[in-house]
Fold this protein.
Amino acid sequence: MSRSKDDIYRCDAEGQCKKSLGVMIFLKMAHDGIDLLPLQERIEQEVVKYPHNAAALLDSAALTFLKGSDATGAMEFVKGVNVLGQKRQQAAFEQSVFFTVRESAAPTLRVLALAAPGEVNCNAPIEFLLQNDDIETTFWYVLPDRQDEGAVPEHDIAVVISDLSDSSKETADRIQKMEQSWPKPLINRIENLQKFARDRFFSFAKGIAGIYIPETRVVSRTDAMPFPYPFIIRPLHSFGGHGLSKIEKQSDLESYLETHFESQFFTSPFIDYSSSDGLFRKYRIAVVDGKAFPVHMAINEKWALWYYSSGMLESEEKIAEEVNFLLNFDTSGLGKKYGAAIEQLAKKIGSEYFVLDCAETKTGELLIFEGGHDMVVHDMESPTRFPVKNEKMQELFRAFQTMLKDRYLCSIQKTGKRPSK
């Protein structure tokens, strides 16, 4: 069937459509309050008209999984419709597991992102980091039960973006096996990403002056709690703060277990990181090749806080403090105070790129809550209202792209030519 000029997907000579619109477009639209329904309806029409359009099937699955987004990584999912999303995604993978999201006529760098099948938050949102017309980005959805190595697209460097959750474990295991003989530069190997597990991460801060990561233990419902009151508890496989609570006494624990029926939980000491004004301040920092970059900060009277639920966008005073955090990060802020310690941590972890959520203790240490490669970093805020944040995000993106290009150039110097695969 011939395609019209109004089609939103472009096919190759064999009639295959493998250029996805990409999740970033959907997230930006949702963030800006744009109704996704008209676009979703167009994509659904595409699926009906061209049932073998792999890209449309993949995008349809993403939109089906995604019920709006607050761009924090804590995506909301429509109850009961994930089955449809899974079917659409499976149908897409029957056509192809390789999808280009950004093309370039003469790319200076070709990036292959090793991704996991599943819902939107199964993979790091790397599209934001690679917004450059000179960089071509292709996603490989690594399926545990399929062998696709012979068809791997031409690329210069690979980046692992799959998360390490239970749903992605088989994909991560397969990627780890492939890493052993990967012929190209490869960023964020699985063995390094595994070090961010909550019950392992704290051990890598030992011996690093200026950094404190509270010890985290896994307990069952019947285990004795390993920490004195107050302590933090959350279900083992929860994300985005779901089930997170502070336990101050035995009755709190009993009440918590009456409403949370999971078999295992993470526990860690509660650290009061409130500032002198009684408010809590939480920071997000990205680390590229050992160097720290500011992302955002959140301010609230509650200890459990996230950027978009802390009222940051509604308070000019909070915005001004965040601007100060961003502008002075390297000269007098957290970057100057803790940059060397973060670099030491990066060496211990071994990952070329990761993100930290952190605060400052009352005794002047960088208190790190969690880290990982799949935490959301983006430039979706209005560049008119938030010019400093937009500028800082572009600096971060350029640093990430430069790091990838440097790794690629090192490989060329060793081989004397651009690798063919």
